[in-house]
Amino acid sequence: MMENIIRITYQSAAYQVIGFMARPDVGKVKGKLPGLVYCRGGIGRVGMVRPEWVQAFASRGFVVMAPAYRGNEGGEGRDEFGGADVEDTNAAVRYLRELPEVDPDRVSIMGFSRGAVNAFQTAIEEPGVHRLVLWGGVSDLAATYEERVDLRRMLRRVIGGTPVRKSENYQKRSAIYHAAEISCPVLIVHGTADEQVEVTHAYRMIEALHQAGKPFAAHLYDGIGHHPPEPIWSAVVDRWTEWLR
After folding, report:
1. 166: domain range?
2. How far apart are CA 162 and CA 61, in angstroms?
């Protein structure tokens, strides 16, 4: 773990869960700082919180909180892939707002890949979220079930069945069905060559936000995959963190 990243244990409903935090060099900043909740992708040891990402986001002027989600990194409970574990990201927003150096009116959320499933729900459930970024984000979990044969067994296990048998569980976790409930501006970031979360997820979310009359922007990157290489990755992050500000 990098020196400026702190591992914390915080309360989420009945569980003690793990998160990772980093702060910018506050000596170079005047006034209160914006906060950012970084919602990791994957589940379990796949897509774990990336310390270098936490550090990179903090270096751009944000106090960063990255929940590991319950059941991960030694935390209590079980990750439900955007079920009850959404409270872990809700609690992370509240945690940041209570820090004396953070401006409580400028706490935003970024959900990467599966993290978008948690991020959009928190943007709905926690009033006053500043802005929401969905980066390479899953917006329709039933579509993911069809597209990613390798994930089907895991999805049936954590969600309780297939999209046919548990359609309400899949729709609850799918942002395209809840665009009208999101009250903050939304930014869609996606590579058109993404093979892990197809760019159709971005297109459908853009259409859902448009139909709901919600403020949004889109940064689409032609020919870029799920994990952009450097220096493109840094340029992508520079652009969406500037949008947050």
Report:
1. 5-244
2. 42
Q: How sure is the predictor about 140, in pLDDT bands with cuts at 50, 70 and 90?
A: very high
Residue 3 scores a pLDDT above 80:
no
Q: Which two tokens stand for residue 35?
A: 């906060």
Q: Could you say which DSSP state residue 177 is in?
A: G
- List the CATH number of the domain containing 190: 3.40.50.1820
Beta bridge partners, 107, equal: 35
The pairing of beta strand 33-39 with beta strand 63-67: parallel
Tokens of 7: 């591992």
Q: Which amino acid is at 89?
A: T
In 3D, which of 123, 133, 132, 130 has the Cα closest to residue 105? 130
Our count of domains for the chain comes to: 1
As annotated, the active-site residues are 113, 226
